[in-house]
């Protein structure tokens, strides 16, 4: 432990941030440490914090929700935000939380962010939160029950949905025309078609239209 500790809580549900704050206070009260918690409820507010060059240097731990409201066209989810945070400050500890328990969704978050802690919200209770914080602060990864089950089954497909894939899915979901996509994405028309084919294979979509692909991507939390 350190003499002062700063935690950034990023979640759009006040009950969740309140639970995290209470758990942190329990941990640090017992250690007699100085604790500061900073709470934001959306991606735009979080970006204002982390884009400050000195801010992340002062942060010891970040709780990051994957499903967050955003008005930013480049940061569409908490996953994108987590990637950006790790790019700016690779050593900051992140505990991810999400309501999505799909195996492939878990796989993608682990690959793209590699968080020190990973909590599925259905697994959460006060004891789990306390254990997650203590474990991560002792430099050991912590995964809640559903994530551990994923490791036992571990899907064999190594294709990871990246930022470009998620941006493509987002544009398809809002009705962007195929002819417009090359001006929005860093891909040629042929490259976009290849990505769509790979995504449909991944989600086991056989129909030619994008309707089912978009539906499954939304259900699994990619858009």
Note the main attributes of this structure:
223 residues; alpha/beta; Rossmann fold; 6-stranded parallel sheet; 6 strands; globular
What do you see in this structure?
The protein is of the alpha/beta class and 223 residues long. It folds into two domains: 4-153, Response regulator (Rossmann fold); 163-219. The protein is 46% helix and 14% strand. It contains nine helices and six strands; from the N terminus they run E-H-E-H-E-H-E-H-E-H-E-H-H-H-H. The chain has helices at 14-31, 43-50, 78-88, 103-113, 126-137, 145-153, 163-173, 189-202, 211-219, and strands at 4-10, 34-40, 61-65, 93-98, 117-120, 142-143. A six-stranded parallel sheet has the order 2-1-3-4-5-6, sandwiched between helices. Helix 1 crosses helix 5 (126-137), helix 2 packs parallel to helix 3 (78-88) and helix 7 (163-173) crosses helix 9.
Could you give the topology of this structure?
Elements: E1 4-10, H1 14-31, E2 34-40, H2 43-50, E3 61-65, H3 78-88, E4 93-98, H4 103-113, E5 117-120, H5 126-137, E6 142-143, H6 145-153, H7 163-173, H8 189-202, H9 211-219
Parallel strand pairs: 1-2, 1-3, 3-4, 4-5, 5-6
């Amino acid at each position: 432990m350190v003499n002062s500790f700063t935690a950034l809580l990023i979640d759009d549900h006040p009950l969740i941030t309140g639970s995290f704050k209470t758990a942190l206070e329990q941990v640090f009260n017992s250690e007699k440490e100085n604790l500061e918690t900073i709470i934001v409820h959306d991606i735009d507010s979080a970006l204002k914090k982390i884009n400050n060059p000195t801010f992340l240097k002062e942060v010891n731990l970040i709780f990051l929700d994957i499903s967050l409201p955003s008005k930013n066209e480049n940061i569409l989810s908490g996953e994108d935000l987590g990637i950006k945070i790790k790019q700016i400050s690779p050593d900051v500890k992140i505990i991810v939380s999400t309501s999505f328990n799909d195996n492939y969704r878990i796989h993608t978050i682990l690959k793209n962010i590699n968080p020190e802690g990973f909590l599925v919200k259905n697994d959460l209770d006060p004891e789990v939160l306390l254990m997650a914080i203590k474990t991560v602060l002792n430099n050991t990864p912590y995964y809640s029950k559903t994530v551990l089950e994923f490791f036992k089954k571990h899907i064999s497909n190594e294709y990871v949905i990246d930022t470009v894939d998620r941006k493509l899915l987002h544009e398809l979901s809002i009705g962007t025309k195929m002819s417009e996509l090359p001006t929005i994405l860093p891909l040629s028309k042929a490259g976009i078609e290849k990505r769509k084919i790979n995504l449909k294979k991944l989600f086991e979509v056989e129909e030619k239209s994008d309707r089912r692909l978009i539906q499954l991507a939304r259900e699994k939390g990619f858009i």
